[in-house]
C-alpha cells in the first residue's frame, strides 16, 4: 500500500491504511490533547479556587500583573499559530522552502513569548516580591504559567528539531502528518494560553 | 462421557452452601451492641442514619433475592449435564429482548427512588440542628490534635492566666472527654490544628471530618444520660488507632454541677484536708508492668462506665499533701507546664497538650486510651512512646527537653494529677 | 515466554541499515529480545508477569495486616509498620496488580480481537511498560531504605503527606512513583484508543467490536481523562515538598480539601478503570461458556459508556464526611444511585446470557459466575454508601473496606483470574487442569467471603479502618479472627492458582486451536499466536466474528485467499522493527526519579551553588530520556516485510524502509 501512496497526489485528510481514514498520529495527538486539557483544567481550577479563597494579606494580583506586556506576548503567540498553519499548508503542498521559513518564524515567535515570560517572572520575583513560596497566589500563578511555559518550550524544541530534520532531505510531502500533528500541539498550547490569559490575567481587570 | 451422579453434584455445591450457612451463622454470632455499634443508636441523628441503613438493606435484600434466584435458577437449569449436552447443537442464538431490558431498567430506577427519598430527608436532618430546636442548642468546639481531642465550651468562661501572667477569661476547656447535657441538641464545631481527623461517636451520630482551614460542624443529641465511646475515623498518622475519646451525657442538674466544678481552678490539697496521719501515705512503688498494646482498662470499668465516671468526680482517700505539693512543683520544673494548662498553677499555661485542670475527674487519660488510675498514669508518664508511638509529649517533650523522671518524681506527679478532681 | 520464543520465525535477515539509525536490535530470544520487544503479546506478558508478581507482594502485605489484627492488642507489627503495610497494600493492589493485569489483557487480547497485527504505536507501547515498571520500583523502593515505605494511606490526604507531617523520602517516592504510573497508563491508553479506532480489520464496525474491546476503549478514555487530575494533585504536592509552595500548606492558606477533590476526581473513575476491563472479560466468558451471544449487546456497551461518563460526576461520594453541605451531598448521592442503574443492567444482561444457554462449568466459567455473585453483593453495599446519611456511619469504617474488596476482589480480581484461565490456552497452548482450577476457585471463593463478609459487621460495629490495633471489649474480636483465618484460606487459594498456572505452563496438556469453542476473533489463531498474529487480515461479517467464520468456512477461506494475494502484492506482512529506545527512555526516567525523589537536597556547604548530587542526577536522568526519545524519533517507525510459507513459517523478509502502513 505504501508503494501506491507515492504514486498519485496525496490526500492529507485520508489515510487508506486505517479504519477511519484518519491518520493514527492525528488521533493520537487529539487524544493526548484531550488528556492535556484535563491537566490544564486542574491547574486552572486550582488557581481559580484559591482566587476565591485568598488567605488574608494576599497581594492583589492587579498590583503584580503588567497587562500590557502579557497582551503583547499573547498576541505574539497567536501570530505564531498563524505561521504554524502556514507551515503545515506548505509541507502539504511539498513546498519545503516555504515551510522552513514559516517554521523559523513560529520558533522565533515562540522564543519571544518565552522571553517575555522569563522577563515577567523575574520582574514579579525581584520587583513585585511575588515568589512561588511566599503566597498562594505565587504558588498557583507560577505553577500554572510555568507549566504552560514548559509546553511552549517543548514545542519550540520540537519545531526546531523538525526544522533541522527538514535539511536531511527525509522530510517530504509524505510526512506532512508529522508536521501537522506538531501543529495541532502548537495550536493547542496557544488556545490554552488564551484560556489562561483570560482566567488569570483578564479576570483581575473586570 | 457420563452424567455426574448426585453426590458429585452435591459436592460441587457443598462449599457454596457451607459458605452461605457460615455467613448466616456468623452474623448471628456478632455482638451487635458493642460500645461503638451503630446498631444501638442513642440519639435522633444516629437513629435516622440507622433507619436509612435498614431501608437500603431491605431494598437490596429484595433485589438480591429476586436477581439471585434468577441467577441461581439459570445456573442450575441451563447447566450442561453431560458431555453430549456440550457437543449438542448450540442453543438458539438470542441477541436480547428490549421489553425485558426496559422493564428491568424501570424496576431498578423505582427501587432507587425508594432509597433516594429517605436519603434526601436524612441529608438535611443530619446536617444541622433542626430550626425549631436551634434556640435550645448547646455549643461546643472540638479540635483534633495528633492524637487527642480538645473540647471547648465557648459560652462558659473560666478564669485563667495568660502567658504574661494576666488574669483573663477564656472558654472552659477540657480534653479527651466531652461532657454534654442529655436531651438537648449539641452543636459541635469541628476544628483541627494539624492534619485531617474525623469525629465519630457511632451511637450518637455519623462522623464529620475536621479539615484544616474549613469550618465543619456536627450536631448530636443524647436521648438520656449515658457514656459513649468515640474514635478518630480518618487516618491521621502513626497513632491514629489510639486517638479515642468519650462523650458523657448528663441530666440538666448533674451537667450544671459538673460545669460549676470545672469552672473552679485546680484543686489544692491542704494538709488538713488530707485527714489524719502524717508521713507519706502513698506507697506507689509497685506499679503494674504492661506489655506493649496491652488494653488500657480493667473489666470493672466496662460494666458501668457512667458510674465509674461519677465515682471519678470525688477525691479519693489517702491523699498525701506533701507529695502532691512536690508533684505540683515538678509539673512546672520538668517543663510539663509548657504544654499543659492547669488553671491555678503558676506558669502552667501551655496549649499544645490537653488542659489538665481537672484531669483527675476524667475516666480516661492519654486521649481516651487508658483508664485513669494509678497504674495507667504511671504507664503513661513513665514511657509515653510505648503507649502511643510518636506522640508529641514524647517527641517534643521528653526527647527535646531531655526529661528524666526519677521513681520518686513519678510518684509525686501521679499523686498531683490524681488530686486534680 | 519460551512458548513465544519457540515460534521464532524470522530468519536473521539483513535489516535496513539507515544512516540515522544507530542501533537496530534484532535478538529474537534472550534478555535483549525482551528489552527491545515491540510485540504487543510480549508486552502483554511483561505486564501480566509484573502484575502477578505484585499480587504476591501485595498479598503478603495483606496477610501481615491480617496477622496483626487477628487478635486484639496484638504486637506483631508496630503501628509504623502497619501504616506502611496498608498504604503499600492499597497502592500495590490498585496500581501494580489490577491495572497491569488489565493492561496485559488489553495488550494481548484486544489487537487480536479486532484483527490487528499490533497496536498503533508499538514502541510507545513498550515505553508504557518500562515506565510502569520504573514507577512500580520507585513506589516500592522504600522497603529497602531507612526512610521506610510510604505510610500515609493510598489516597495520601494532605496535609498528612506534606513535609511537616511526613518529613522522610517515603512520601516523595510515593508521589514520584504514582506520577510515573500515571504517565505509563496515559501513554498506554492513548495507544489503545488509536488502535481500536483505527486498526480494526475490514468489516469490524464499532458495533461488532467484542465487548472486551469496547471496555478497553472506555477504560482508556477514563485513564486519559482522569489521570491528569491525580497527576496535578501529585505535582502540587511535590512542589510543596520540594520547593516549598503553598498548595496544601495550611498556615499560608492552603486548602487540604482541594487534594481530596483532585484525588477523587481521579479516584472514582479509577474505580471504573479497575472494574470495566473485568466486566469486559466477563462479557467474553459468559457467552462462550453458555454457547450463546451476549444478551443485549448494545445495552451492555451503552451501559459501559454511561458508567464511564457518570463516573466523572460522583467523586464527592468519597467525601460525604468532609462537610460538603446539603445540596452537594444530595446531588452526589443521587448521581451515585444513578450509576447503579447501568451497573444493574449489566448484571441483568449477563443473567440473560446464561438464560437458555448450554452452560459448561469450566474453571473460567466458575470464576465468572463467582464474579456475578460477589460483584452483586459489592454493588449492594455500594448503594448503601450512596445513601449519604447512612454513609456517615459507614465511611472510613471496615464496612467500606468490605465494600471495596467485594468490588475489587469479588469483581475485578475474580474476572482477571477468570480471564487468565480463559486465555491461557491461546497464550501458551496449554490447558489448565480442571480439578486444580476448580480447587483454586473454591478456596479463593470461600476464603474471600470468610475474610470480607465479617468486615461489614465490624464496620457497622464501629471499627475504623487503618487502625493497627483494637481493644478486646469492642465486640470486634470474633469478626477479626474469622477474617484473618479467611485471609489465609484466600492466600492458599491464590497460591494453588499460581502454582497450577506455573505447572500448566511447563507440563500442562497441550490444546488445539479454539479449545473452548469460543466466539471472538482471537480464537481463530493458532496457539501460541505467531508474532505476525494473522496470516491474512480477516474480514468480519458479524459480531462474534469467529463464531460466524466457523459456520461459513468456505466463504471465509475463499475470501482469505484473495486477501492474501492482495497483501502479498503490497509487499507482504509488515512487521515493526524492534527498538531499544523505549527501554533506554525508561532507564533515563528511573535515574531522574531517583534524583528527584530519593536523593537528599545538597548540603550547600559541601556543594556550593546549584550542582548538588540531587540536581545532577535528576538532570542526568532527564538527559538520558531526552536523548533516547530523540533517537527514537530519528529511527522512525520503520519495519520489515515478511512472507510466509503455507504452514505459517517465514519464507523470507524484505527489509523495508519508510513510513509504515499498518497492514
Summarize the SSE layout with pairings:
The complex is a heterotrimer of chains A (206), B (421) and C (663).
Chain A: H1 2-7, H2 24-52, H3 61-64, H4 67-92, H5 96-126, H6 136-166, H7 176-201
Helix pairs in contact in A: 2-6, 2-7, 4-5, 4-7, 5-6, 6-7
Chain B: H1 6-29, H2 44-77, H3 83-87, H4 98-127, E1 138-145, E2 148-161, E3 167-175, E4 177-181, E5 186-192, E6 197-201, E7 205-210, E8 216-220, E9 226-232, E10 244-250, H5 252-263, H6 299-303, H7 305-312, H8 321-333, E11 364-365, E12 370-371, H9 374-382, H10 384-387, H11 392-399, H12 407-419
Chain C: H1 2-6, H2 30-35, H3 40-69, H4 79-113, H5 122-140, H6 169-198, H7 211-243, H8 256-290, H9 297-310, H10 326-354, H11 363-386, H12 388-394, H13 398-428, E1 430-431, H14 434-460, H15 477-507, E2 509-510, H16 545-551, H17 553-569, E3 573-576, H18 581-597, H19 613-635, E4 639-644, E5 650-656
Antiparallel strand pairs in C: 1-2, 3-4, 4-5
Helix pairs in contact in C: 3-4, 3-5, 3-15, 4-5, 4-6, 4-8, 4-13, 5-6, 5-18, 6-7, 6-18, 7-8, 7-9, 8-10, 8-11, 8-13, 9-10, 10-11, 11-13, 11-14, 13-14, 14-15, 18-19
Q: Your description of this structure?
A:
Chain A is mostly helical and 206 residues long. Chain A contains seven helices and no strands. The longest helix of chain A is centred in the middle third of the chain and has 31 residues, at 96-126. Mean pLDDT of chain A is 90; it is low at 1-8. Chain B has 421 residues and is an alpha+beta fold. In chain B, 39% of the residues lie in helices and 18% in strands. Chain B has a five-stranded mixed sheet. A five-stranded mixed sheet of chain B has the order 4-10-9-6-7. In chain B, helix 8 (321-333) packs across helix 12 (407-419). The longest helix of chain B is centred in the first third of the chain and has 34 residues, at 44-77. Helices cover 63% and strands 3% of the residues of chain C. In chain C, the strands form two sheets. In chain C, strands 3-4-5 form a three-stranded antiparallel sheet, with no helix packed on it. Chain C has a two-stranded antiparallel ribbon with strand order 1-2. In chain C, strand 4 and strand 5 (650-656) form a beta hairpin. Chain C starts with a helix and ends in a 7-residue tail after the last strand. The model of chain C is unreliable at 1-19, 605-609 and 657-663 (pLDDT under 50). The chains are: A mainly alpha (206), B alpha+beta (421), C mainly alpha (663). Chains B and C meet through helix 1, helix 2, helix 4, strand 7 and strand 9 of B and helix 4, helix 8, helix 9, helix 10 and helix 11 of C.
Amino acid at each position: 500500500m505504501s508503494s501506491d501512496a507515492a504514486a498519485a497526489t496525496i490526500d492529507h485528510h485520508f489515510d487508506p491504511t486505517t479504519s477511519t481514514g484518519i491518520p493514527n498520529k492525528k488521533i493520537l495527538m487529539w487524544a493526548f490533547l484531550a488528556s492535556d486539557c484535563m491537566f490544564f483544567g486542574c491547574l486552572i481550577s486550582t488557581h481559580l479556587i484559591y482566587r476565591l479563597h485568598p488567605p488574608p494579606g494576599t497581594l492583589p494580583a492587579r498590583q503584580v500583573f503588567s497587562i500590557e506586556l502579557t497582551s503583547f506576548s499573547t498576541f505574539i503567540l497567536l501570530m505564531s499559530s498563524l505561521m504554524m498553519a502556514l507551515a503545515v499548508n506548505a509541507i502539504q503542498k511539498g513546498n519545503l522552502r516555504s515551510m522552513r521559513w514559516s517554521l523559523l518564524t513560529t520558533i522565533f515567535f515562540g522564543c519571544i513569548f518565552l522571553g517575555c515570560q522569563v522577563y515577567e517572572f523575574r520582574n514579579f520575583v525581584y520587583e513585585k516580591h511575588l515568589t512561588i513560596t511566599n503566597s498562594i497566589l505565587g504558588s498557583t500563578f507560577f505553577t500554572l504559567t510555568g507549566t504552560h511555559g514548559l509546553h511552549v518550550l517543548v514545542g519550540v524544541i520540537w519545531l526546531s528539531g523538525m526544522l533541522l530534520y527538514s535539511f536531511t532531505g527525509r522530510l517530504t510531502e509524505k510526512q506532512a502528518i508529522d508536521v501537522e500533528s506538531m501543529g495541532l500541539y502548537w495550536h493547542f498550547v496557544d488556545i490554552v494560553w488564551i484560556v489562561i490569559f483570560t482566567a488569570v490575567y483578564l479576570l483581575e481587570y473586570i | 462421557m457420563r452424567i455426574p451422579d448426585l453426590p458429585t453434584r452435591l459436592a460441587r455445591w457443598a462449599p457454596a452452601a457451607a459458605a452461605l450457612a457460615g455467613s448466616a451463622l456468623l452474623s448471628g454470632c456478632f455482638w451487635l451492641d458493642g460500645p461503638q455499634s451503630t446498631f444501638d443508636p442513642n440519639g435522633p441523628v444516629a437513629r435516622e442514619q440507622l433507619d436509612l441503613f435498614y431501608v437500603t438493606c431491605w431494598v437490596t435484600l429484595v433485589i438480591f433475592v429476586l436477581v439471585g434466584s434468577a441467577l441461581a435458577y439459570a445456573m442450575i437449569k441451563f447447566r450442561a449435564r453431560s458431555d453430549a449436552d456440550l457437543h449438542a447443537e448450540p442453543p438458539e442464538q438470542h441477541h436480547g429482548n428490549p421489553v425485558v431490558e426496559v422493564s428491568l431498567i424501570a424496576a431498578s430506577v423505582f427501587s432507587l427512588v425508594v432509597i433516594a427519598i429517605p436519603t434526601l430527608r436524612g441529608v438535611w436532618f443530619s446536617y444541622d440542628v433542626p430550626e425549631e430546636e436551634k434556640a435550645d442548642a448547646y455549643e461546643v468546639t472540638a479540635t483534633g490534635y495528633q492524637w487527642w481531642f480538645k473540647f471547648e465550651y465557648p459560652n462558659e468562661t473560666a478564669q485563667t492566666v495568660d502567658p504574661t501572667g494576666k488574669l483573663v477569661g477564656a472558654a472552659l476547656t477540657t480534653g479527651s472527654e466531652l461532657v454534654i447535657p442529655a436531651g438537648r441538641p449539641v452543636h459541635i464545631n469541628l476544628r483541627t490544628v494539624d492534619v485531617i481527623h474525623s469525629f465519630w461517636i457511632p451511637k450518637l451520630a455519623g462522623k464529620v471530618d475536621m479539615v484544616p482551614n474549613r469550618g465543619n460542624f456536627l450536631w448530636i443529641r443524647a436521648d438520656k444520660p449515658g457514656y459513649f465511646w468515640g474514635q478518630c475515623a480518618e487516618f491521621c498518622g502513626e497513632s491514629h488507632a489510639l486517638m479515642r475519646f468519650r462523650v458523657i451525657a448528663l441530666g440538666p442538674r448533674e451537667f450544671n454541677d459538673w460545669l460549676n466544678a470545672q469552672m473552679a481552678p485546680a484543686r489544692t490539697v491542704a494538709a488538713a484536708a488530707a485527714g489524719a496521719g502524717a508521713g507519706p501515705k502513698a506507697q506507689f512503688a509497685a506499679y503494674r508492668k504492661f506489655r506493649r498494646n496491652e488494653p488500657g482498662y480493667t473489666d470493672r470499668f466496662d460494666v458501668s462506665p457512667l458510674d465509674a465516671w461519677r465515682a471519678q468526680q470525688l477525691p479519693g482517700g489517702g491523699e498525701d499533701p506533701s507529695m502532691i505539693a512536690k508533684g505540683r512543683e515538678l509539673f512546672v520544673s520538668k517543663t510539663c507546664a509548657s504544654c499543659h494548662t492547669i488553671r491555678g498553677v503558676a506558669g502552667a499555661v501551655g496549649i499544645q497538650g490537653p488542659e489538665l485542670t481537672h484531669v483527675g475527674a476524667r475516666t480516661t487519660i492519654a486521649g481516651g486510651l487508658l483508664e485513669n488510675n494509678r497504674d495507667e498514669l504511671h504507664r503513661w508518664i513513665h514511657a509515653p512512646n510505648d503507649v502511643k508511638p510518636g506522640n508529641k509529649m514524647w517527641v517534643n517533650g521528653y526527647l527535646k527537653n531531655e526529661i528524666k523522671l526519677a521513681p520518686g518524681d513519678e510518684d509525686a506527679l501521679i499523686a498531683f494529677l490524681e488530686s486534680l478532681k | 515466554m519460551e512458548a513465544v520464543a519457540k515460534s521464532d520465525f524470522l530468519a536473521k535477515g539483513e535489516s535496513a541499515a539507515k544512516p540515522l539509525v544507530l542501533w537496530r536490535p534484532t535478538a529474537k530470544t534472550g534478555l535483549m529480545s525482551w528489552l527491545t520487544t515491540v510485540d504487543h503479546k510480549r508486552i502483554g506478558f511483561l505486564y501480566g508477569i509484573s502484575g502477578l508478581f505484585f499480587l504476591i507482594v501485595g498479598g503478603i502485605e495483606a496477610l501481615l495486616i491480617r496477622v496483626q489484627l487477628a487478635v486484639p492488642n496484638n504486637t506483631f507489627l508496630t503501628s509504623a509498620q502497619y501504616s506502611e503495610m496498608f498504604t503499600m497494600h492499597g497502592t500495590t493492589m490498585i496500581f501494580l496488580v489490577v491495572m497491569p493485569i488489565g493492561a496485559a489483557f488489553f495488550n494481548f487480547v484486544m489487537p487480536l480481537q479486532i484483527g490487528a497485527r499490533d497496536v498503533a504505536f508499538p514502541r510507545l507501547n513498550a515505553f508504557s511498560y518500562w515506565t510502569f515498571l520504573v514507577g512500580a520500583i520507585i513506589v516500592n523502593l522504600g522497603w529497602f531504605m531507612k526512610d521506610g515505605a510510604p505510610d500515609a494511606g493510598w489516597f495520601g490526604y494532605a496535609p498528612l503527606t506534606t513535609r511537616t507531617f511526613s518529613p522522610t523520602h517515603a512520601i516523595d517516592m510515593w508521589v514520584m512513583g504514582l506520577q510515573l504510573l500515571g504517565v505509563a497508563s496515559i501513554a498506554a491508553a492513548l495507544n489503545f484508543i488509536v488502535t481500536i479506532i483505527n486498526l480494526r480489520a475490514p468489516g469490524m464496525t464499532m458495533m461488532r467490536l467484542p465487548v472486551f474491546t469496547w471496555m478497553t476503549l472506555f477504560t482508556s478514555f477514563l485513564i486519559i481523562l482522569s489521570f491528569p487530575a491525580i497527576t496535578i494533585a501529585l505535582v502540587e504536592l511535590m512542589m510543596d515538598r520540594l520547593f516549598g509552595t503553598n498548595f496544601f500548606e495550611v498556615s499560608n492558606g492552603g486548602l487540604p480539601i482541594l487534594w481530596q477533590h483532585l484525588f477523587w476526581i481521579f479516584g472514582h473513575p479509577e474505580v471504573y478503570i479497575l472494574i470495566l476491563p473485568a466486566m469486559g472479560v466477563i462479557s467474553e466468558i459468559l457467552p462462550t461458556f453458555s454457547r450463546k451471544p451476549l444478551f443485549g449487546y448494545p445495552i451492555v456497551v451503552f451501559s459501559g459508556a454511561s458508567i464511564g461518563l457518570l463516573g466523572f460526576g460522583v467523586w464527592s461520594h468519597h467525601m460525604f464526611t468532609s462537610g460538603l453541605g446539603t445540596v452537594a451531598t444530595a446531588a452526589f448521592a443521587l448521581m451515585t444511585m444513578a450509576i447503579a442503574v447501568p451497573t444493574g443492567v449489566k448484571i441483568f444482561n449477563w443473567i440473560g446470557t446464561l438464560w437458555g444457554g448450554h452452560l459448561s462449568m469450566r474453571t473460567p466459567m466458575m470464576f465468572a459466575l463467582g464474579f456475578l455473585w460477589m460483584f452483586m453483593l459489592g454493588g449492594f453495599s455500594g448503594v448503601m454508601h450512596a445513601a449519604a446519611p447512612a454513609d456517615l456511619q459507614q465511611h472510613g469504617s471496615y464496612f467500606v473496606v468490605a465494600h471495596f474488596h467485594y468490588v475489587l476482589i469479588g469483581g475485578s480480581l475474580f474476572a482477571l483470574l477468570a480471564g487468565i484461565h480463559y486465555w491461557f490456552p491461546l497464550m501458551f497452548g496449554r490447558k489448565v487442569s480442571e480439578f486444580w482450577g476448580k480447587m483454586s476457585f473454591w478456596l479463593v471463593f470461600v476464603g474471600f467471603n470468610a475474610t470480607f463478609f465479617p468486615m461489614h459487621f465490624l464496620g457497622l460495629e464501629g471499627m475504623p479502618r487503618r487502625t493497627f490495633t483494637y481493644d478486646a471489649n469492642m465486640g470486634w474480636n470474633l469478626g477479626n479472627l474469622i477474617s484473618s483465618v479467611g485471609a489465609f484460606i484466600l492466600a492458599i487459594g491464590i497460591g494453588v492458582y499460581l502454582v497450577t498456572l506455573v505447572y500448566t505452563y511447563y507440563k500442562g496438556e497441550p490444546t488445539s486451536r479454539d479449545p473452548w469453542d469460543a466466539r471472538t476473533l482471537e480464537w481463530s489463531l493458532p496457539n501460541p499466536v505467531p508474532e505476525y498474529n494473522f496470516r491474512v487480515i480477516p474480514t468480519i461479517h458479524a459480531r462474534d466474528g469467529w463464531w460466524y467464520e466457523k459456520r461459513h468456512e468456505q466463504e471465509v477461506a475463499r475470501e482469505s485467499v484473495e486477501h492474501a494475494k492482495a497483501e502479498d502484492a503490497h509487499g507482504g506482512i509488515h512487521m515493526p522493527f524492534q527498538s531499544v529506545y523505549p527501554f533506554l527512555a525508561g532507564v533515563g526516567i528511573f535515574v531522574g526519579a531517583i534524583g528527584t525523589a530519593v536523593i537528599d537536597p545538597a548540603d550547600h556547604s559541601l556543594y556550593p551553588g546549584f550542582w548538588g548530587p540531587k540536581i545532577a542526577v535528576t538532570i542526568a536522568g532527564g538527559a538520558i530520556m531526552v536523548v533516547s526519545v530523540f533517537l527514537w524519533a530519528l529511527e522512525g517507525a520503520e519495519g520489515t516485510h515478511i512472507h510466509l510459507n503455507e504452514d505459517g513459517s517465514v519464507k523470507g523478509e524484505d527489509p523495508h524502509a519508510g513510513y509504515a502502513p499498518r497492514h
